[in-house]
Amino acid sequence: MNKPEYKSDSFLVLEVQSGNTKSLVLLIKRWHKELCEKAYWIVKDSDLAKDIAQDCWSTVIQKIYELKDPESFGSWISRIVYRKALDNIKKSKRTIEMLEQFRYQQETMFQENDFDTSREKMLLKGIKLLPSGQQTVIRLFYLDNYSLKEIGELLNISIGTAKSRLFKARETLKQTLKQKTYEK
User: Fold this and answer.
1) What residue ranges do the domains of the chain occupy?
2) What single DSSP character describes residue 130?
3) Cβ neighbours around 109 below 10 Å, total
4) Residues 78, 151: Cα–Cα separation, whole Å
5) Sign (positive/negative) of CA torsion 175, 150, 164, 134?
6) Phi/psi of residue 11, each to 5°?
7) What is the rounded distance in angstroms from the CA atom of residue 16 to the CA atom of residue 27?
8) Looking at domain 107-184, which CATH architecture does it have?
9) pLDDT tens track, the chain, 184 positions
């Protein structure tokens, strides 16, 4: 029995741009769960995250024909979902509540097996103690592999600000981990 041929995101994007709607269905199946997770990471509400992901797909359907570099589809769609989630928080009547909740109760989504050791768990706890701006930058840089330029564009901040937040986050995290180590 032959396995179905794997088609890259960039190939599927080119197919969609050529009018093949079946390729769009494949992109949706491949990316929808991840978009929901990225939105949830910011808004902390699963129903709202699903709505944001759905809204993201509406934008993708409208704008995919304008995407000049199909290789960048993953970062392009991630930027869309992050912006929509952040816009949602800004528009919310409960902005202050949500930002505080985001700051103090932020859950980081990792695969279960990635962080089994106590050292890694301590690192995650330390990240959760960082101010929300630093948490976001450190997560985007180290976990989602965004460049400082991409982080700046995504969060509407300068590269220098992104760099500064990343530096401060690392320094704060270093101090927090030193304190935790001495407390044991």
Assistant:
1) 7-105, 107-184
2) S
3) 11
4) 11
5) negative
6) -65, -45
7) 9
8) Orthogonal Bundle (1.10)
9) 455 567 899 999 999 999 999 999 999 999 999 999 999 988 888 999 999 999 999 999 999 999 999 999 999 999 999 999 988 877 765 555 555 555 554 444 444 444 456 667 777 788 888 888 888 888 888 878 888 998 888 888 899 998 998 899 889 888 887 876 656 5
Same topology, domains 7-105 and 107-184? Answer is: no
60 near 77, Cβ under 8 Å?
A: yes
- Interatomic CA distance for residues 56 and 85, integer angstroms: 9
Whole-model pTM: value is: 0.56
The string of DSSP codes covering 40-90 is HHHH--HHHHHHHHHHHHHHHHHHGGG-S-GGGHHHHHHHHHHHHHHHHHH
**Contact of 61 with 14, CB cutoff 8 Å:** no
- Tell me: domain 7-105, CATH 1.10.1740.10, correct? yes
φ, ψ at 66 (rounded to 5°): -90, -10
- HSE at residue 48, side-chain half, CA atoms within 13 A, is 15
Written as one letter, the residue type at 18 is S
**For residues 132 and 112, what is the distance between their CA atoms, to the nearest angstrom?**
23
113 in Cβ contact with 121 (< 8 Å): no
